[in-house]
């Protein structure tokens, strides 16, 4: 028999079954939950809880320190500050005059300051800073920055002057420079950033293999890795050269500085052989050769053909002439068409001669021992000569030879037991030169990388 559900209309009570009553209860509970949630959220928004303290209360402090910019402004209102870089030919008194400053203070500085520098010997590039009260011509303070990096400060305290010398710490730095020959080695190196003293040192390094009078050509290249001593951002000492590479007429020449265990310090090639040899490549530097070695040469004065077994070096009168190697003076005096003439005996095998000198080096005499590179005289035009030049000749066992084509032994070589260390140093230097575009050397050393 089927169950029936009965309903009353109007305001009467409705009668439901059990399942219907459970469904209505669930719905009522959900609505009650949402109503409570809304009420709680509204109370939190209207009355948010207090945040817990983050830490101890920080009280603002007043930082009491001087305003540097304001102090400088006040200082500049009291004094006129003049900065001057010393130019070539300027003197300290002349600088004071050109700046309309009184020279009396210089006398006071020299009188009252014990470590007063000789400002009359100032050099180009040094700097002077004068502090002068406005509308006056007598400085009350001077800062002098010398070429060696030292700084002198002169300050007037009352009626007297006080001085202070500040010597900054010397910093050693390394630097590389590279370039190509344009007009001359000197000018090209200078343009590339090689310090002037090191240009001559570079020429000395390769003086045993390169004749800078005749060998250099436009486009030949050089690279130099060197050390400098710096104070206050200024170079106070240049050198030494640590490594150098030159490519001349397609040939590559290398030099690496290295110190042997016995303290002998020199420059070596890529194989560890000393660049120093028994003889230099030329007795002069930076001058062209007026005539080369030949057995048939027209003499410009006598106008006859005769063997001229030597080399003429054209150079201005007074150019120093150096001994090609160690030896003993065996002749000094006038010798016919050679004019003032010097002969040097190098051991039992070799002899060099130097003619047409204008004068001899002071103290030069027969029997005196000379060292390689010592000045023995000066270029001239004595004897049969139409212009200043050096007549240089080289003899082996009494016979004239073309020494430019003769190979001479090296002074020393790196011992085999420390060769590995030398190669390590060499590679370090080559890496520094590679940074400026110099390719690594090809060597004959089997152990070289």
How many extended strands? 22
Annotated CATH architecture of the largest domain: Roll
Q: What portion of the residues fall into strands of 2 or more residues? A: 25-35%
Structural class: alpha+beta
SSE topology:
Layout: H1 18-46, H2 68-78, E1 79-85, H3 92-98, H4 104-112, E2 127-133, E3 141-145, E4 151-157, E5 160-166, E6 171-180, H5 185-192, H6 196-205, E7 221-231, E8 234-248, E9 251-259, E10 265-268, E11 289-291, E12 294-298, E13 305-308, E14 311-314, E15 320-322, E16 327-334, E17 340-346, E18 350-360, E19 369-370, E20 375-379, E21 389-396, E22 399-400, H7 419-434
Antiparallel strand pairs: 1-2, 2-3, 3-4, 4-5, 6-7, 7-8, 8-9, 9-10, 11-14, 12-13, 14-21, 15-20, 16-17, 16-19, 17-18, 18-20, 18-21, 21-22
What does the model show?
Its cofactor is Zn(2+). Its main location: other. Residues 307-402 form the M23ase beta-sheet core domain. InterPro entries: Cell_wall_metabolism_enzyme, Csd3_N2, Dup_hybrid_motif, M23ase_b-sheet_dom. GO terms for molecular function: metal ion binding; metalloendopeptidase activity. The chain has 7 helices and 22 strands. The protein folds into 3 domains: 70-166, Nuclear Transport Factor 2, Chain: A; 169-277 and 409-449, Nuclear Transport Factor 2, Chain: A (Roll), CATH 3.10.450; 289-405, Glucose Permease (Domain IIA). With 449 residues, the chain is α+β, with helices and mostly antiparallel strands. A hairpin with a 2-residue loop joins strand 7 and strand 8 (234-248). Helices cover 20% and strands 32% of the residues. The strands form 4 sheets. Strands 11, 14, 15, 16, 17, 18, 19, 20, 21 and 22 form a 10-stranded antiparallel beta sheet that branches. It has helices at residues 18-46, 68-78, 92-98, 104-112, 185-192, 196-205, 419-434, and strands at residues 79-85, 127-133, 141-145, 151-157, 160-166, 171-180, 221-231, 234-248, 251-259, 265-268, 289-291, 294-298, 305-308, 311-314, 320-322, 327-334, 340-346, 350-360, 369-370, 375-379, 389-396, 399-400.
């Amino acid at each position: 028999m089927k169950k029936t559900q009965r309903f009353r209309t109007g305001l009467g009570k409705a009668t439901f079954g059990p399942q219907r009553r459970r469904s209505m209860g669930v719905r009522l509970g959900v609505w009650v939950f949402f109503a409570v949630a809304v009420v709680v959220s509204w109370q939190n928004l209207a009355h948010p809880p207090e945040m817990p303290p983050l830490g101890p209360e920080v009280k603002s402090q007043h930082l009491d320190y001087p305003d540097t910019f304001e102090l400088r402004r006040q200082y500049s209102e009291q004094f006129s500050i003049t900065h001057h870089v010393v130019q070539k030919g300027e003197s300290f008194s002349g600088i004071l005059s050109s700046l309309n400053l009184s020279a009396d203070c210089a006398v006071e500085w020299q009188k009252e300051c014990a470590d007063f520098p000789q400002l009359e010997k100032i050099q180009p590039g040094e700097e002077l800073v004068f502090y002068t009260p406005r509308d006056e011509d007598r400085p009350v303070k001077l800062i002098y920055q010398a070429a060696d990096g030292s700084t002198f400060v002169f300050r007037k305290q009352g009626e007297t002057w006080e001085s202070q010398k500040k010597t900054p710490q010397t910093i050693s730095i390394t630097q590389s420079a590279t370039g190509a020959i344009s007009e001359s080695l000197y000018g090209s190196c200078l343009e590339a950033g090689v310090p002037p003293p090191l240009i001559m040192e570079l020429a000395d390094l390769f003086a045993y293999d390169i004749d800078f009078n005749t060998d250099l050509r436009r486009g030949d290249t050089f690279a130099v890795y060197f050390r400098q001593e710096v104070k206050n951002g200024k170079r106070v000492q240049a050198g030494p050269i640590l490594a150098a590479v030159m490519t001349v007429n397609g040939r590559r020449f290398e030099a690496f500085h290295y110190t042997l265990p016995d303290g002998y310090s020199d420059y070596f090639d890529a194989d560890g052989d000393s660049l120093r040899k028994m003889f230099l490549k030329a007795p002069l530097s930076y001058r062209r050769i007026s005539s080369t070695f030949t057995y048939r040469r027209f003499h410009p004065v006598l106008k006859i053909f005769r063997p001229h077994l030597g080399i003429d070096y054209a150079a201005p009168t007074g150019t120093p002439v150096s001994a090609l190697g160690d030896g003993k003076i065996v002749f000094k005096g006038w010798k016919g068409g050679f004019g003032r003439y010097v002969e040097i005996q190098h051991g039992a095998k070799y002899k060099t001669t130097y003619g047409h000198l204008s004068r001899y080096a002071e103290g030069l005499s027969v029997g005196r021992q000379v060292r390689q590179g010592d000045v023995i005289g000066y270029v001239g035009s004595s004897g049969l000569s139409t212009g200043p030049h050096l007549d240089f000749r080289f003899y082996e066992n009494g016979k004239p030879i073309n020494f430019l084509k003769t190979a001479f032994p090296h002074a020393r070589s790196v011992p085999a037991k420390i060769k590995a260390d030398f190669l390590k140093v060499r590679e370090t230097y080559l890496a520094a030169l590679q940074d400026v575009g110099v390719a690594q050397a090809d060597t004959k050393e089997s152990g070289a990388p």
